[in-house]
Amino acid sequence: MKYIVSILLLSFSILIVLSCSADSPTEDESKEIYWYKSDSPILIEGCYIVPENTTLTIEAGTEIRFKSKSKKDFDYTEIKTGMLVIQGMIIAEGTEQDSIIFTKDDSVENWGAIVFEESADPNSILKYCKIQYCSEVEDYQYTILGAITFLAFSKANVENCNITDSYYGIQCNGYAEPNIIGCAISNCVNGIYSYLCRSNIRNCTIKNNGANGIYGYMSYLSLKNSIISNNGRDGIAIENGSYPDIINNVIEYNGYAGIDCYEECAPNIENNLIMNNLETGMLFNYYCLPNIVNNLIAGSIKGIHLANWSDANIINNTVTGNDFAFRLYGDCTPQIINTIVWDNIEVIDPLEDHYYYYNSNPILFSSLIQGDSLHYSITDQGDNIIGIDPLFIDDSLDFNLQSSSPCIESGFNDIVELPEFDLLGNPRIVGGLIDIGAYEYQGSR
After folding, report:
1. What is d(CA 135, CA 316) in angstroms, rounded to the nearest whole number?
2. How high is the pLDDT of residue 4?
3. What is the rounded CA–CA span in Å between residue 305 and residue 290?
4. pLDDT digits (tens, 9 = 90+) for 341-353
5. Strand 114-116 to strand 250-252: parallel, antiparallel, or no bridges (unpaired)?
6. pLDDT on residue 3
7. How many angstroms separate the Cα of 321 from the Cα of each of 118, 165, 335, 340?
8. Is the alpha carbon torsion for 130, 132, 138, 143 positive or negative?
9. Residue 445 has what pLDDT?
10. CA 60, 61, 65: angle at the middle one, nearest 5?
11. pTM of the shown model
12. What is the pairing mode between strands 14-18 and 4-7?
């Protein structure tokens, strides 16, 4: 491995300087490359490539700085900024106490990205890494948008990384399948951007991004056990035939919608806390078919918004504390089963009086709903409890049921989508019948 060493006179620190043309290994060179903490900081001046059948191992505590330039210099045909391209394998495993740092070498401008190509070893790993101050790189195979970018069909593991202050946190393209586990992504435009790929996202915190926490287009996302909060627009935005699993998450305080689905999406949304999103808890527009099971939907202007031939199975949810529990327009016929609708200002948004509202007729069965009578648009399928307090433990803080609640053992069991566990992970059926709402009473009957 050839290193060019230079000295920064102001700081008297030693930099190992690497560039694509001079220092990326050729096929005739060693297949093992090591970057050590003692060599820090290491400066990448251009596009550094780890070729196929080569492994780059980075020691915990190593700091890598990339040459930074203004956006006009981010053209891959004549790269003028630092970036790292993985065609082989990277093993960058820091520790909780001693992270590996990927950052810029300039106090003003940003650098490129870490890019995984299709040939990258799927066992590659970035663990306990801090990745910050990345920007766009144009005219590559795709425009590079993410601090970590997965190109078509690539696979790798990103674990316990902190990704901040970049254009996108993670970008995933064309059938890529990254595992994103335990990461924190903040202060980017989009936290995760997924185009036609399968992203496995677990135990992450994605917050304070300017637009969306997660954006998916024609993607099969799996999002579990994560916190998606305080993003400028949507917590999760999906479009055009996306089929995500959204399970066991906290989705709160986002600037527009907690979950926003557009055009022929069929998300599976289970066991989430969807709270205090500014405009709507969930929005489904144009032929969407969500399965909504065991969620708490609270604290928004609209709890669930269905539009333009979108239908939904709404099963064992608690919809409370919203201005309007539902907004429905454009020929939507959701089925609402085993669900509590209580303490919202209105059940149905008065948009019903607008000319866009037509042929939307929710079907209500075995649920508890506020009001003296059902709204005229609702079809009563029977076994509903109307206008009787569900007796939450606390109407604003704890939506578990008191022992005298009318919701206990008042639900309907014969449902294909019947959940195994409630929102707290407790057994879903304790007595003979399921309870109404997202929480199953666990005491004696």
Report:
1. 43
2. 30
3. 11
4. 999 999 988 665 5
5. unpaired
6. 32
7. 47, 35, 21, 11
8. positive
9. 65
10. 115
11. 0.92
12. antiparallel
Amino acid code (one letter) for 123? N
| CA of residue 11 relative to chain centroid, distance | 41
Whose structure tokens read 């096929």? 27
d(CA 114, CA 168): 12
Q: Are strands 313-315 and 146-150 parallel, antiparallel or unpaired?
A: unpaired
Residue 103: closest CA among 86, 82, 76, 75: 82
214: its two tokens: 């997660």
Q: In angstroms, rounded to a whole number, what is the distance separating the alpha carbons of residues 440 and 423?
A: 8
What residue type is assigned to position 208 of the chain? N
Confidence band, pLDDT 50/70/90 cuts, at residue 47: confident
3-class state of residue 211 by DSSP? coil
Cβ atoms of residues 230 and 253 within 8 Å: yes
**420 or 79, greater pLDDT:** 420
Q: What gap in Å lies between CA 232 and CA 234, rounded to an integer?
A: 7
Which string of b and e fits 338-364 if b means at least 16 CB within 10 Å?
bbbbbbbebbbbebbeeeebeebebeb
The runs of H, that is alpha helices, within 86-213 are none
- CB distance 440 to 416 below 8 Å: no
Band (205; pLDDT cuts 50, 70, 90) = very high
Q: 374-383: which pairs have CB atoms within 8 A and are 24 or more residues apart?
A: 375/347, 375/348, 377/328, 377/348, 377/352, 378/347, 378/348, 383/410, 383/412
**DSSP sequence for 159-175:** ES-EEESSSEEEEEETT
356 contacts 330 by C-beta, under 8 angstroms: yes
**What pLDDT was estimated at residue 360?**
83
Residue 426, pLDDT above cutoff 90 = yes
Whether the CB-CB separation of 169 and 107 falls below 8 Å is answered with no
Residue type for 147, please?
A
Q: Which of 241, 201, 234 is nearest to 219 (CA)?
A: 241
Distance (Å, rounded) from C-alpha 147 to C-alpha 166?
A: 6
Report which secondary-structure segment, H or E, holds 23. helix 20-23
Nearest alpha carbon to residue 276 among 311, 320, 307: 320
Task: Label residue 211 by pLDDT band (50, 70, 90).
Answer: very high
Half-sphere exposure of 329 (CA within 13 A, CB side): 10
Sign of CA dihedral 264, 237, 130, 167: positive
3-state secondary structure of 71: helix
pLDDT of residue 30: 56
Question: In angstroms, rounded to a whole number, what is the distance separating the alpha carbons of residues 35 and 42?
Answer: 8
pLDDT score of 70 more than 80: no
